[in-house]
Fold this protein.
Amino acid sequence: MDYLKAAASTDIHRAINTIADEYQGILSSGVFGFSILGKPLEYITFGVGKETHIFVGTHHGSEHITASLLIKFSADIADAAQNGRKLAGFDVSNIRSYRQLVIIPMLNPDGADIEQGALPADHFIFPRLLSMNPHGRDFTHWQANARGVDLNHNYDAGFYECKKLEQKLGIFSGGPTRFGGQYPESEPEVQAMCDLTRFFVPRLKTATALHTQGEEIYYGYGEKIPDGAKMLADMFSRASQYAVSKPEGIASYGGYKDWVTDKFAIPSFTIECGRGVNPLPPSDFYKIYEKILPILLICASF
Ligand SMILES: [Zn+2]
């Protein structure tokens, strides 16, 4: 995969198949749900251990660089395992034996395609998208799914507090960002993510969502801080120079991290990768990857 090019959902689909083929027996892949527009929601797994770590990218359309970051991470960890090498100083064979990584590069394929203009202009959803978009035909900053729901506000964690804040901001219906939907888990992408997470919960050790941007690490939900969450966030920060921060306002409810923390008391993180204006340019890819690779490996080794 060319990491220096933006990736639409078909590119990510192809990349997942390519690395699953190339590292057969080390990586596996599958589908755990479908987007509103029927695109497969795909996962990659690595490792045969009993302790699971979930990594998910691209909740937000304009943050599709996170899908490429997770594809490269999957390929690199598989390659190191195949060749008996360490990865950035980490013993990958240990991770492979004792952990299972479940990696979802792109949770919002429709949003990523809308943002990149990869959805054909004659698609049946297009008139509805135009009616939801205050920027006309410019979808450059589109974060939501195809129904205009911001997936990272659709989880059942302070959902109704989030709703009140939305309304204060003048958001009452679908749009490019911040509308949390009619009720928690109303969106198939979030439903699938919740089902997948619930399936692994008895053995789930951490769950991490990659977003862009800001070079920040978030953990906890309100006053709830699962055992180990702060320690891990501090370790991530030391390894990456990213700052440990506390979300404020509307960003502090309804997200994947909030839901995992609230419902299961399992350490869960939002990593705001890179710095700049979304969508971050693909030319930032290697610079960002270098910073987040140790975060992913610390997490996977926990
Ligand atoms: Zn985001």
